[in-house]
Amino acid sequence: MTLKNYTFLQICQMIIIPAFFDTLKMLVISGIISTILGFFLGVILIITEKGGLCENVVVNRILDFFVNMIRSFPFIILMISIIPFTRLIVGSSIGDQAAIVPLTVAVTPFMARIFQNSFKEVDPALIEAAQSFGASKRQIVFKVMLKEAVPSIISGLCLAIINLLGATAMAGAVGAGGLGSVALTYGYQNFNQQIMYSICAVLVILVAIIQYFGDWIYKKLK
Amino acid sequence: MIEIKNLKKIWEDDKSSVLEDINLTIEDGDIYALVGRSGAGKSTLLRCINGLTSYQGGSLTVDGCEIKDLKDKELREFRRRVGMIFQHFSLLERETVYQNIALPMQCWKYPKEETDKKVKELLELVGLTDKMNARPRNLSGGQKQRVAIARALTMEPKILLCDEATSALDPKTTNSILELLLEINQKIGITIVIVTHQMEVVRKACNKACILEQGRIADEGTVRDIFIRQPLSLRRLLGEEEIHLPACGHNIQIAHMVNDIRDGELFGRMSKELDYVFPILDGKIQEYQNDSMGIFVINVDDAHLEQVTRYLDEQKFTWREIKNVDKTEA
């Protein structure tokens, strides 16, 4: 039996919709984990830099090096090269859960840079003012820098999540499920243009929704 | 009381000296001006007072407590007693006026009711009760500075540091902020240290001043004294080094407080008593707190010089001879 025996609606129900939820799952889980990790990395990067709240050039250099290094890997290569690490964590290198590991690893440095840049935009005079009334370093980070940087962080996160969506599609190439894998196996390799383009359409809509939602929150918070 | 002795500061980057040999005492209740051109080190000196920047030599004590010896926690505790306001207000743009003022008390974990009471009290003091829920971006510069003043006063500091606090404001708003500072100074007896390059701020609000030139104290004393003496550093600051005066005769600058004598009276009487008519080349009357100060330049010929100067000495006027800076001769 081939796919030709089914109507497009049935294909949607059987393949595309579950794949959509797989993608969403990868997106949400790795998005949340990488945001949290990225936040801490970003904070460490900004406070240890020269003239920062807890200046520490050595820590800053090392972190900066790793962030740059991971960001310079093409995602598909990164995913393959950290397979042992992925196995160690989830016990397998195939499937959605396994894909979450390299996705998180790939996006965390990107998130860290977004946080770092957003914090950098906070007026240093504000930090000085907070110091002048005796705020602690933690209070400066959370009550001043984070609060002031929120809109800029939101628009950055939006960018990162769209990036992450692209990566989830790529993860499909090496065994993860999701829209990317369906477009590749059922669409491209099966010469089924209908499936391929309908998945493209779904992705376009998804990106548009994320972007629109991000802009909306940005405007709300600004 | 703030006592600064032989203070020295060097930039860590290039070892260049920022402040050298600074000696001054600021008494409780003073409104003290640190003036100088940009780069003279006045803002840096101000930041030494609350430990925002370190110094390498000498001592700076506030009520007997040496700032550079304070550890992190002690320094934070110390800063509660020293409020600070800035040129560009430094308010959280995304928070309301109320939240901005409440922030220091929140950081120090005051009870909610106490914070609320204090914030409302300060909002009334600075006259912004109706703007409580507005955001800084919807306020004018003067209003923003009022919010910053309220924020600086939340923890009832004994000292208020003002870093070019009026430099970004128009003259009228500057006056209203200065009036507010004077009011606070009188009401709660807070010591105020003002860093500024605007001489009218010094004249209107301060009782003592120190002129900094290239990291050193060029002149220091009561504002009244400095303006009457018109030292070179003050004239340099005002950009009045070169006035074009006639080359003949002697040009004498006279400074006096208007309350002491009416100007017309001074020159009229002098002219009459000496039976000598002289030209007035330059004259200005500047507002100085509740008084005004007149500064005049008259031209006296050789024959009458001694007579005139003797008269001025007898009448106890501050005077000095000024020379035209002749560029061709130089």
* Structural class computed from helices and strand pairing of chain B: alpha/beta
* Gap between N and C termini of chain A: 55 Å
- The shape of chain A, in one word, is elongated
Range of helix content of chain A: over 70%
Count up the helices of chain B.
Answer: 11
| Average pLDDT figure of chain B | 87
Which secondary-structure class do the elements of chain A indicate?
mainly alpha
Mean pLDDT of chain A equals: 90
Written account of the structure:
The complex is a heterodimer of chains A (222) and B (330). Chain A has 222 residues and is mainly alpha-helical. Chain A is 81% helix and 0% strand. Chain A is built from 9 helices and no strands. The longest helix of chain A has 41 residues, at 8-48. Chain A is elongated. The mean pLDDT of chain A is 90. Chain B has 330 residues and is α/β, with parallel strands linked by helices. Chain B has 11 helices and 14 strands. Chain B has helices at 42-49, 72-79, 97-107, 112-125, 141-153, 171-188, 199-205, 223-229, 232-238, 263-274, 302-314; strands at 2-10, 17-26, 31-36, 57-62, 65-66, 82-85, 159-163, 191-196, 208-213, 216-222, 250-257, 280-288, 291-300, 318-322. In chain B, the strands form 3 sheets. A 6-stranded mixed β-sheet of chain B has the order 6-7-8-3-9-10, sandwiched between helices. In chain B, helix 3 (97-107) runs parallel beside helix 5 (141-153), helix 4 packs across helix 5 (141-153) and helix 5 (141-153) packs parallel to helix 6 (171-188). The longest helix of chain B is centred in the middle third of the chain and has 18 residues, at 171-188. Chain A binds chain B through residues 123, 125-126, 128-136, 139, 143-144, 147-148, 150-151, 221-222, and chain B through 50, 52, 76-80, 82-84, 86, 88, 90-95, 103-104, 106-108, 148, 151-152, 154-155, 161.
